[in-house]
Structure formats: structure tokens, C-alpha cells
Amino acid sequence: MAFKNNLPKDLAKKAEHPIDQFREEMNRLFDSFFRGFDIEPFDTRGGVFSPKVDVVETETEIRVSAELPGMDEKEIDVSLAKDSLTIRGEKKLEKDETGKDYYRMERSYGAFSRTIPLPVQVDPEKVSAEFRKGVLSVVLPKAKEAVQKSKKISVKGS
């Protein structure tokens, strides 16, 4: 589930520059087109790489996980701005194959950048990131002010 879809449309638009909005819309378009074709996120023919990102918000934190298969933590850059989290990286793939009568080497490169708007203020001192088995997990604890402002409202039936 895309995180931005959980935000009110006017808030999501204010959180991004128009160019970023266009890029995100194009990402969604391509994601929906290739869904169901069983294509890996890193396409060795054209160097296209768009990681799948999941965002979950609880009362106390926001958790972001991104699938980055075949990458190394040294190839990943995670940065936090006032109201957004950005994950960038560059994937370099080299295949080297030698047979009895042939030698084949393929190289493919692709850069990516995903920006996730944050609906609340987070505590930058407590943000943590971990990369394990091709999955980047980022935990963004909400700032005290943001946690105190939220209130559960009960819904009554008629």
C-alpha cells in the first residue's frame, strides 16, 4: 500500500515539489503497468530500478521498508528532511560468464530515488535504519508533540 494514498490529497501535494509529484505519478503508472508480469525490480536490459516501498504508521512511529535485492548497504543513501524521507541508491550489475567456446560479460547500471512525505514531525535523533537480506527498514519515532496531538475518536453506529 502506498503511504501517500493515506494522506489527504491536499496535504500530499503540499509536501512535494511539482516535479516530485510528476515523478511519483510516473512511478505509480509504471508500477501498475508491470504488476502481474513477474518482472524483477532491476531490469538488466535497461537498467531500470524502482524499489517497492511499504510504509506503516502506528501511534508512536512510522516504519518504512524498501525492497533492494542484490544491493549492498554502501550503495544506499537515506536522508531525512523536515517533512520527508528520501531513499537513494545506485545499482550496478555485472555478469561475467565463461563457457567452453565463449566469454560473455554484461554490465547494467541504474539509479533510483524515492521520497516519502511524512504526515507528522519525527524525532531525527531517534531515527534508525537497518539493511538485512535485501530489505531496508527505517524506523522514524514520532516527536513528542506529534504523539500528544493525536487522539483516538470512537465511531458510533446508528
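the 2nd protein, sequnce then structure:
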Amino acid sequence: MEEKHRQLLEDIYNRAYEYEGKYGACPQAVLAALQDFFDGIDDQVIKSVHAFAGGGALCGDGTCGALVGGLAAISSYYGRERSQFGQKTAARKKNFSYSRQLHQNFTEEFGGVTCREVQENVLGRAYKMWDPEDYQKFEEAGGHDDKCTNVSGLVARWTAAILLEKGIAPKV
């Protein structure tokens, strides 16, 4: 990979890390970081993924929000349009293929895709994000200092690498 892309990927990692640490909502942190460096990710997409934070509604049993953010970014470029319902488009096939790459990177790194599995992997245990006491323990364990921030940064970096590899040009 070219040196300029190495630096770009590092910058994207850092931006997602920063956004997750400052603002939470990992899917939005990932998407916003990618939007800062690539055209094609609409603000409505960022808005629409908010409820996926913390494994969906902060419940922990759904897909990690950071992964959702990365998948949403890929779909912003290759996802099926409503007008294409029922059609087997080339973009549809690409979307699933590129998204599977991200999924594979994620599962290799974190051993699963649910928020709970990621928390167990990076924090040593899962937390009940709706319980104020347990949420405080999550924060004290580094949830928004260096744990979920790192997860968000990695997903943003992996997603950006896929986009670059597939010919999506960054902003100039």
C-alpha cells in the first residue's frame, strides 16, 4: 500500500478513536470518521445507525455498533437502492463480498461480532449498559478511554482499506 494511504488509514483510525472517546455511539464514530475522509456517506446514514450502539439499543446482544458502522459505510457505496429491489445487481454482489471481508477481519480480531463478545474480549467481561452502576464500571475499565475507542478505530481503518482497495477515492 502506498505511503499516502498508510497515513490516511492512520488518520482515519485516530479520528474514529477520537469520536468514540468524545461522543460515544460507535457506529456513528466509525461513519463520521470515514465521512471526514471520503465523499458518499450521507448524514442520514450516520443518524440512522445511532440506535445500533452497544449492540443495539445498548442491550449488548446484537452486532457491535462499530462493525455496523463499517458495514453501513460499505453499503453507502455498494448497497442496493430501493429501485433495485428484486434485482441481482453487480453492486449487490460486491456489497456482500466487501462486507464479508470486514466481517472476517472483525471476527479474527475479536472472536465474534456481538457487543457482548467484543466486551468480553477487550474488557474481560460484558457490561449492562443500561445499568448505571455497571455502565460506570464499563467506563472505569476503559470503555471509552482505550477499549471501544480502539475497536472503532480498527473498524474505520479496515473499512477505509477496503474502500481504497476497491477504488473509492478519498477526499483531496
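The CA atoms of residues 56 and 62 lie 5 Å apart. The two ends are 18 Å apart (CA to CA).
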